Amino acid sequence: GDSVTQMEGPVTLSEEAFLTINCTYTATGYPSLFWYVQYPGEGLQLLLKATKADDKGSNKGFEATYRKETTSFHLEKGSVQVSDSAVYFCALRGTGNQFYFGTGTSLTVIP
Amino acid sequence: GAVVSQHPSRVICKSGTSVKIECRSLDFQATTMFWYRQFPKKSLMLMATSNEGSKATYEQGVEKDKFLINHASLTLSTLTVTSAHPEDSSFYICSARDPGTVYSYEQYFGPGTRLTVT
Known about the structure:
Chain A is an all-beta fold and about 110 residues long. In chain A, about 0% of the residues lie in helices and about 50% in strands. Chain A contains no helices and 12 strands. The mean pLDDT of chain A is about 90. By secondary structure, chain B is an all-beta fold. Helices cover about 0% and strands about 55% of the residues of chain B. Chain B has no helices and 11 strands. In chain B, the strands form 2 sheets. In chain B, strands 2, 4, 5, 6, 9, 10 and 11 form a 7-stranded mixed β-sheet that branches. In chain B, strands 1-3-8-7 form a 4-stranded antiparallel β-sheet, with no helix packed on it. The radius of gyration of chain B is 14 Å and the shape is globular. At the A-B interface, strand 6 of A face strand 5, strand 9 and strand 10 of B.
């Protein structure tokens, strides 16, 4: 069945460091891929998405490229800020329009 | 953009009582809403799919008699946790699908409801 695997955290970085959070997926067909962010005490917010192979989603300095050959959708940011501290979820929307989420990666950015 | 609200944001109830959580789509009509449960340090688990005017579809392992879902209008779905027990304590999140165009199935998530059963 469809599933998402993302790197376990927690991840702690200094401000302005480079961020990568790995995400790989297993799916039948051609899923859409998403990154959601959850700030403390809040619900999920869509960060970025990509709907087909080689698409690059980007928002707020974050980027992720839909790589069909490696079934990956790694999240990257060149220079993280304290305000980026949150839990990040990789997700896919399968052919049945159902969402499958990874386990989440907690990021803490220290000044 | 599309906004989904949940009420209450936090609720504490005694063991054995029932509690209702509302999920509303504020600026669009949602024929389909979803209810998720999030365990600490775990991912979101889909509990059920709620379709307006029809019975909810529950995921395997979710007790439909315990988690009652009603989707009486195009903007409101409710989740009632009946005879709550401490193990039901969790963060419950709903999402609503905005049909938009025929091929658009974007889901928008509510802010979640923290349920604590004492």
